[in-house]
Amino acid sequence: MTLRQNLTYLFSETGLAALRGFIDSATLLAFDLDGTLAPIVADPGGIRVPQTIRDASLKLMEQTTMAVITGRSRSNAQAHLGMTPHYLIGNHGAEGLPGREAYEGEYLELAKNWEKQLKGLFASANGAGIVIENKGATVSVHYRASCERAAARSQVLSGIELLNPQPRIISGKCVEDLVPATAPNKGEALLYLMRHLGYPKGFYIGDDKTDEDVFRLMGEQLFTVRVGTAGPSRAGYALRNQQEVPGLLKELVNALGGQH
Ligand SMILES: [Mg+2]
Q1: Domain ranges of the chain
Q2: Which long-range contacts (CB under 8 A, 24 or more apart) does 208-214 make?
């Protein structure tokens, strides 16, 4: 079955056959958190990984290596996961990659520097409703609390333009995430982890535009799934919504030989 945007539905005959043919113990399994392992809720602080997903994840971790790659900081993500994946990569790829600790030290300094500059900029620029959050290796500038969101966003972006050095910007819902320009994105983080751990194949599932950095990787042995069918995507396959993720995990457990 073909969904909108020519994405193949993962739970079609073709999709399931492809998944079962691909997944084996040489496959590193990687997952996004918000909107993938955990359903999106109105308050981002209230997300939670459902028990069915936690149980299936524990089974998967007995069978192969599991990574979670998220835009949240590692400590924040860990608080919502309710389990400990083998690798937890935070801050969109900037935090938690084994062997890159020295770079993380640089990112921490960079984030502190941006936080200081932003506080100075917005303190003297009528920055009501703008909240600066230092997430360790990245900085988030929130404007959810502002009454005039469009105006607040342009004010935030003008402020960011003045930063030295310039960050890479990831725009979210009422938030701009500032990422060190040299930090890996989610796609680079996944490839790094595969190479570092010696996995020739990778599986990845995610739901938003930062996950497209994985989906657009070419020439790699990757099986990619997008949660949701709205808008264009470079993923190989799609699920209709997050409620289908537990079924996918079950398929992964079975594909790895854990039916018994
Ligand atoms: Mg997500």
Answers
A1: 4-99+184-255, 102-179
A2: 208/32, 208/35, 210/71, 210/92, 210/170, 210/185, 210/186, 211/32, 211/186, 211/235, 213/185, 213/186, 213/187, 213/188, 214/30, 214/69, 214/186, 214/187, 214/190
**Which tokens in the block code for residue 143?**
């404007």
CA 35 to centroid of ligand 1, rounded, Å = 5
Please give the CATH number for the structural domain made up of 4-99+184-255: 3.40.50.1000
78 CA to middle of ligand 1, Å?
15
Q: How far is the CA of 125 from the centre of ligand 1 (A)?
A: 32
Axis crossing angle, helix 13-22 with helix 245-255, rounded to the nearest 10? 50
Q: How far is the CA of 120 from the centre of ligand 1 (A)?
A: 31
Q: What are phi and psi of 202, to 5 degrees?
A: -135, 145
Reference 57, options 258, 239, 260; nearest CA is: 258
Interval 43-50 mean pLDDT: 92
> Taking the model in full, what pTM does it have?
0.94
- Ligand 1 centroid distance, CA of 124 (Å): 34
The yes/no answer on whether domain 102-179 falls in CATH 3.30.870.10 is no
Give yes or no for a contact between 206 and 186, defined as CB atoms under 8 angstroms apart: yes
Q: Which residue carries 């595969």 as its tokens?
A: 194
pLDDT tens-digit series, residues 195-227: 999 999 999 999 999 999 999 998 889 999 999
Rounded to the nearest angstrom, the distance between the alpha carbon of 173 and the centre of ligand 1 is 12
The pLDDT, as a whole number, for residue 259 is: 46
Give residue 195 CA to ligand 1 midpoint distance, Å: 24
pLDDT digits (tens, 9 = 90+) for 101-112: 999 999 999 999
Instruction: Determine the distance separating the centroid of ligand 1 and the alpha carbon of 198, expressed in angstroms.
Output: 26
